[in-house]
Design a protein that fits this description.
Blueprint: E1 2-7, E2 18-24, E3 30-35, E4 38-39, E5 45-47, E6 53-55, E7 59-60, E8 63-68, E9 78-84, E10 89-95, H1 110-120, H2 124-138, E11 151-157, E12 162-168, E13 172-177, E14 183-186, E15 203-205, H3 209-215, H4 227-231, H5 248-262, E16 274-275, H6 283-290, E17 327-334, E18 346-351, E19 360-363, H7 386-396, H8 401-434, H9 439-471, E20 472-473, E21 476-477
Helix pairs in contact: 1-2, 7-9, 8-9
């Protein structure tokens, strides 16, 4: 279960596209890894999830990506969301109601495509066209992840434009550009409506898609093609928990986005995924959207009887809110072109429950986050692993959510993020001034900042955990602590 949102460049307060995504898989620690640029020999190969190699490109871009600590085929970590050093961001969410036309020999899975797009895509549009070419050559299949053998919708963006790319097993696919003045989201379902095949600026499609839909009986020749209606369906025998477009976990998260950003109160079953924001969306606005629990709306999860006497909004195993107790990691790509390409733009990561975790930044030109953020295993709590540190702090709020979260946790993390932003502004000015005469020194300024902020976030989380464990004891609160 995952969720992505793209803010068009004219809807953004920054003047460039932003992308955010939650990767949700309860109990799976999240990692952040960095892969540097590399040149390859003609004999080198890219190993697919299924263990079948394909030719590698002569050169690949560097990229920083998040992943979950579960093995899929040949890949020790799965479900990558990332940004490359060309400022191309890719995220994905599983889709579990779809037409399956998988063929014998279809090779590529979603986890292959994300890495290949990050390695080779210079723009969002180019990355999508690359994925289409690879699918035409090697085929596309459902995921090998046990219990989640679905297909995928991807969010793909660069500073100028963003797309949602919806992929079906067997090689049919469509991508639609997000309008510059809109915000658009996607939960675990297809959402592209009627396709204008004459508009190649807004739509990219697999060759023969229209004829394929006619052949399969989804439309009559000459009729318009609604991609989601034709290929998405509203039910799933594969994973009824996530289901199709009308499943509550999808309708409520979509509704929450359009309500929070656009002030809309649409019917839950309306097939609408975008809106014009009431005001330009800031990076902080986007962070708060990813933390949404439907608070202050008729669907507020904290006010349900299941939330208990302490009004814990995270009582659902598969939640109808964007924020989840089972989030692996959240990525927010702030795709600014203000700094030189070698320094890059900022990527922010939040580990575990985004509502109860700080966003920690790094730069696409750097080397990702420190070692503590690159590890963590399922079922193996280790305080030295960053994910488990943040996970523990979030779980401690279960003792008395209403008393702990709004006072002991959330304000401290928000203050930390504000400090991070201020420190980044100063460091970026210093790095930009240094870059023309000392590019390596300029990059070191930003890399050192990333290391300091990452370790500071861990220290704050550890101190919060110690205080909560010492102050909130079962049915007793030590008010004097």
């Amino acid at each position: 279960m995952c969720f992505s949102v793209i803010i068009g460049r004219d809807a953004s307060a920054t003047g460039h596209v932003m992308l955010a995504a939650n990767d949700d898989w309860p109990g799976c620690p999240g990692h952040v890894h960095h892969v540097p640029r590399k040149s390859w020999a003609p004999s080198d190969q890219f190993m697919t999830v299924k263990g079948v190699p394909i030719p590698q490109a002569p050169a690949t871009f560097g990229y920083t990506y998040s992943s979950a600590a579960y093995e899929t085929g040949t890949r020790p970590v799965s479900w990558a969301d990332g940004v490359n050093d060309q400022r191309v961001a890719v995220s994905m969410q599983g889709v579990y109601a779809f037409a399956n036309y998988q063929r014998a020999g279809d090779l590529l899975e979603a986890d292959d495509l994300v890495i290949l797009m990050l390695e080779r895509g210079k723009t969002a549009r180019e990355a999508i066209q690359l994925a289409g070419d690879l699918i035409a050559q090697y085929g596309f299949t459902v995921s090998s992840i046990p219990g989640a053998e679905g297909t995928v919708c991807m969010a793909v963006a660069d500073p100028q434009e963003g797309f949602f790319l919806e992929l079906g097993p067997g090689g049919y696919w469509c991508a639609r550009r997000v309008d510059d003045d809109k915000a658009e989201c996607r939960p675990n379902c297809f959402g592209i409506g009627e396709i204008d095949f004459a508009d190649s600026t807004r739509f990219l499609c697999s060759p023969g898609l229209y004829e394929f839909a006619v052949e399969k009986g989804y439309i009559h020749s000459g009729a318009p093609l609604n991609f989601a209606s034709a290929f998405g369906g509203d039910y799933s025998e594969l994973n009824s928990g996530y289901g199709g477009a009308l499943n509550p976990v999808n309708t409520f998260r979509k509704w929450g986005t359009l309500h929070r950003l656009g002030g809309l109160d649409i019917p839950l079953d309306a097939q609408i995924y975008d809106c014009r924001p009431l005001q330009a969306v800031t990076r902080s606005d986007l962070m708060e959207l990813m933390r949404d629990t439907l608070a202050g709306t008729p669907y507020d999860l904290a006010l349900r009887p299941e939330a208990g006497p302490h009004h814990n909004p995270f009582w659902m195993e598969i939640s109808t809110s964007i924020a989840q107790s089972g989030t692996v990691i959240c990525i927010l790509a702030d795709l600014s072109s203000a700094l030189p390409d070698a320094l890059g733009s900022s990527i922010w990561f939040a580990f575990g429950n985004v509502c109860l975790s700080p966003f920690i930044p790094c730069y696409t030109g750097g080397c990702g986050l420190p070692a503590a953020y690159q590890r963590g295993e399922c079922g193996d709590f280790r305080v030295e692993d960053a994910w488990w540190t943040f996970q523990e702090t979030a779980q401690l709020c279960e003792r008395n959510y209403e008393a702990i979260a709004p006072t002991e946790v959330i304000p401290l993390y928000h203050a930390l993020e504000e400090q991070f932003a201020q420190d980044m502004e100063q460091a970026e000015q210093q790095a930009a001034a240094l870059f023309p005469r000392a590019p390596e020194a300029a990059l070191k300024v930003l890399t050192d900042l990333t290391d300091r902020q990452s370790l500071q976030a861990l220290d704050v989380a550890s101190r919060i955990a110690r205080k909560v464990k010492g102050k909130y004891l079962c049915n007793t609160i030590l008010d004097w602590v």
